[in-house]
Design a protein that fits this description.
Number of strands of chain C: 15
Helix content of chain B: 40-55%
Structural class of chain C: alpha/beta
CATH superfamily of chain B: SCP2 sterol-binding domain
CATH class of chain B: Alpha Beta
Largest sheet of chain C: 8 strands, parallel, barrel
CATH architecture of the largest domain in chain C: Alpha-Beta Barrel
Order of helices and strands of chain C: EHEHEHEHEHEHEHHEEEEEEHEHHE
Chains: A alpha/beta, B alpha+beta, C alpha/beta
Strand content of chain B: 5-15%
Distance between the termini of chain C: 27 Å
Order of helices and strands of chain B: HHEEEEHHEHHH
Shape of chain C: globular
Radius of gyration of chain C: 19 Å
Oligomer: heterotrimer
CATH class of the largest domain in chain C: Alpha Beta
Structural class of chain B: alpha+beta
Largest interface: A-C, 77 and 72 residues
Strand content of chain C: 15-25%
Chain lengths: ~300, ~170, ~325
């Protein structure tokens, strides 16, 4: 049987990076990263859009010149008239494939080839089929799905392109209120873009000083970084088409290199893991959701081998 | 904070344990007689040991629904899976589903520890059961039933004065 | 405007009927609804009896099947939908697209309401649900201001229901894995937020410490009003400063805004609290019923009565007021 190959995909930057940092990150990805797909565009907060927008055209051009398939991300939460308009305009005018992250984009994209992001609740094949029938061609599954669910869906829709969130702090929640601004005594409407001061999130600890979450504007993310490495091979064998790397403020070109090497079975999981620890230091790794445990948990290799047999 | 009138609390304090236990068991078995399917909602938590400690009585009541066992003790609380402590009047109000347990917890009138799932299951079970304690107590008052029931209702109202928001 | 009332048990259901509910919503005793707590909810037989009782009083019954079908276990949700329809539910409250598609196809006559868990927060999203699944009503997520709601209702062909009193999700509903990150039990798949199985309270030098899984969620000083051990109302340390990062332990209360909500075109007002006791249901439903028929001056004293039932014994108007953001 022909060995199946999963493509690498880079998800949108969830944090607020200033324009030049944003542009230079993608230039380097375009020139150096071994990824097939890049999804980009502000996803978390509509107030941030003007930071990256001036650089979008040159970034897309460079990525395409580097052979990457570019997809444009939509906002995760759309409530204001201005935000509705933005999503409508993007979908109407874009020459690129669009990734839906809320229900309005889902509705507007009917009949058009599109992707579904991990912030849309796709928990089962019935939902995936309903979305595929409307034109969805790729679905990045929510990070909290256990391996059992993922396998069920791969099995039910063998020809469909499913993508798995395999690296990065996990988006856990989104709110109308900005906890990041609130932590600085500000409100969302008068936020002074304080989230820009924390390009990798603002750490939140418990009263007993346990690292727990990070704040990213209106979004709350895990403190731990999801790392699915040893867990990937059986899912790829079962038909997983894409593996998503979510940008953190670290050397993502190198992260992509490591994932490619693991997917191609050139490097084993434990060696890859120690490399990742060096590239993204001081952050705990987690894969608990996949193993039907608390998302913050890390299930070591012995256990995950058992999972693939089970 | 509702308290038992001293006239009522004092005799309970000095009564021998066996007597308190006997009365409590009698009430418990009457409740079960009136509500034979009382613990159906508990599911697996029927096996749990529940300890109720009325803070104004210096007593602990431990109940295991599965075996319908009830024991009374003084001093340190007996080992239990779930433990709830508060004024007797509120504990009885909870037993009848007349008080909102969450509201009493928010106000810190009640404190709970141990297996919260067992505690929640019991709370929801009692809330659905519509136990009427004065009527149950009255049922073993023989010919004096209406008097006993009426007296018990009077006490219930007295000890919960000022808590009308949490009381039907 | 209709008053939609919660019931976690048949006893609470009867209280809601007595207190003047226009509709009561409830769920089955399993993972198919978002209040899957031990000892709570309805068996098939209990629902049948409750619906019959409600019919006699001309009150509607809505059945919440508002979690997301776990792949591989879809049968649990499908059979819950089949049974709710067969038992005569006036509406099903759904969040999962796969389940909506199933109900819309199998039972085209069945009234379908979109749960708050689906997070339909704008006109295009609601149009999508109306066109695709023939949704008749949408329960709006608690992320919109009263002005946003007014603008929205004028653009859609669908009834709107909103939460006016009770527990308040700080995060967009149905889009929060915080509890699942700490406990492994998912609000979306298992129907529990801050599951009791993972909650611990311990006394520590006079203060009450609440924990969820391995994490400390709060520490209440002696006598300080406490709240549920939900993460979004926990006290944390951000950059050395301790406080309620997301929200204080408070409940939602927008009864003062009843006139504005009516003017905004809202069809139904919903009370949260299927996990609360029947005393709570009786009290809140009867006060709200009175408030709906009262002038705004008569309303204030009614509302203050409810505050003692609330988390932290305080209330907020939440996202309905722009300043909350």
């Amino acid at each position: 049987m022909k060995k199946k190959r999963a493509a690498l995909s880079l998800g949108p930057i969830y944090y607020l990076w200033d324009g030049p940092k944003w542009r230079d990150f993608y230039f380097r990805i375009a020139d150096e990263a071994d990824v097939e797909h890049v999804t980009l565009g502000e996803t978390v907060c509509s107030k941030r859009q003007h930071f990256s927008e001036p650089h979008a055209a040159e970034v897309i051009e460079r990525l395409e010149a580097g052979g990457k398939q570019v997809t444009l991300s939509t906002l995760a939460m759309v409530t204001l008239e201005r935000e509705c308009r933005h999503v409508r305009d993007l979908i109407r005018d874009s020459d690129h494939k669009v990734e839906a992250n809320d229900l309005s984009a889902l509705g507007l994209l009917k009949g058009q080839r599109h992707s579904i992001g991990p912030l849309v609740n796709v928990y089962n094949a019935a939902t995936a089929r309903a979305l595929a029938a409307r034109g969805a061609q790729n679905i990045c599954l929510p990070p909290e799905l256990p391996a059992g669910s993922i396998r069920q869906m791969l099995y039910a829709m063998p020809d469909f392109s499913f993508e798995l969130f395999a690296f990065g702090r996990m988006p856990l929640a989104i709110s109308a209120r900005c906890a990041h601004a609130r932590s600085k005594g500000l409100t969302k409407d008068n936020c002074q873009f304080v989230c820009g001061e924390h390009p990798d999130g603002l750490p939140l600890r418990t009263l007993d000083r346990q690292s727990f979450l990070v704040l990213n504007g209106v979004q709350t993310m895990s403190n731990s970084c999801a790392v699915l490495l040893d867990d990937l091979a059986p899912l790829v064998d079962a038909g997983l088409a894409r593996v998503r790397l979510s940008p953190q403020d670290c050397d993502m070109v190198r992260v992509a290199e490591i994932y490619r090497a693991v997917l191609d079975q050139r490097v084993d999981g434990s060696a890859a893991l120690s490399d990742l620890f060096r590239i993204y230091p001081d952050i705990p790794f987690s894969n608990g959701f996949l193993h039907q445990r608390e998302g913050a948990a890390w299930v070591a290799r012995g256990r995950s081998a058992a999972l693939t047999l089970g | 904070m509702p308290h038992l009138p001293p006239l009522l609390a004092k005799p309970v304090d000095i009564a021998p344990l066996w007597l308190v236990e006997r009365v409590a068991r009698m009430i418990f078995s009457c409740v079960l007689k009136a509500h034979p399917d009382l613990f159906a909602r508990l599911g697996d938590y029927r096996e749990s040991r529940y300890c109720f400690s009325p803070s104004d009585l210096q007593l602990h009541f431990r109940v295991v629904p599965a075996t319908q066992a009830l024991s009374v003790s003084r001093g340190t609380p007996p080992p239990a899976d779930a433990h709830i402590e508060g004024p007797i009047a509120l504990l009885l109000g909870l037993l009848e589903g007349r008080c909102d347990a969450d509201a009493l917890f928010f106000s810190r009138d009640l404190s709970v520890s141990g297996d919260m799932e067992a505690m929640l299951a019991l709370r929801n079970t009692l809330d659905d059961s519509a136990i009427d304690l004065p009527r149950v107590i009255g049922s073993f008052g023989g010919p004096f039933s209406p008097v006993v029931t009426g007296f018990a209702r009077y006490i219930r109202t007295r000890v919960l004065e000022g808590r009308e928001t949490a009381w039907n | 405007m209709e008053l939609i009332c919660p019931a976690g048990t048949p006893a609470a259901f009867r209280e809601a009927l007595e207190a003047g509910a226009d509709a009561v919503y409830c769920g089955f005793r399993d993972e198919t609804n978002a209040r899957n707590f031990p000892g709570l909810n309805f068996s098939r037989e209990e629902l049948r009896q409750s619906i019959a009782l409600a019919r006699r009083k001309n009150v509607q019954t809505f059945v919440a099947l508002n979690t997301f079908m776990r792949a591989g276990d879809e049968a649990l949700w499908y059979s819950a939908a089949d049974d709710a329809v067969a038992l005569g539910a006036d509406a099903l409250i759904l969040a999962d697209f796969g389940l909506m598609a199933y109900v819309a196809e199998r039972y085209p006559q069945q009234r379908l309401h979109v749960s708050v868990q689906a997070s339909a927060s704008n006109p295009d999203a609601i149009r999508f649900l109306v066109e695709t699944f023939n949704a008749k009503r949408v329960v709006l997520p608690r992320v919109l201001t009263v002005q946003d709601i007014a603008r929205l209702t004028s653009q859609i062909d669908c009834e709107v229901e909103i939460f006016v009193f009770g527990g308040l999700c700080v995060m967009a509903e149905g889009r929060c894995s915080l509890s699942s990150y700490a406990t492994g039990k998912s609000p979306n798949m298992n129907g529990v937020c801050s599951p009791a199985s993972h909650v611990r309270y311990r006394e520590e030098g006079g203060s009450l410490v609440s924990e969820l899984g391995a994490y400390t969620i709060n520490r209440f000083g002696s006598g300080e009003a406490s709240g549920y051990p939900t993460l979004c109302k926990g006290r944390f340390d951000v950059a050395g400063a301790e406080g309620y990062t997301f929200e204080d332990p408070v409940s939602l209360d927008v009864i003062d805004e009843i006139d504005a909500l009516r003017a905004a075109g809202v069809s139904a007002l919903k009370i949260e609290g299927r996990q609360r006791g029947r005393a709570y249901v009786a009290e809140v439903v009867s006060v709200l019923k009175k408030a709906l028929g009262a002038t705004s001056a008569e309303r204030a004293p009614l509302v203050s009565r409810l505050r003692t039932l609330s988390e932290g014994q305080r209330t907020t108007s939440g996202a309905y007021d722009k300043r909350w953001r």
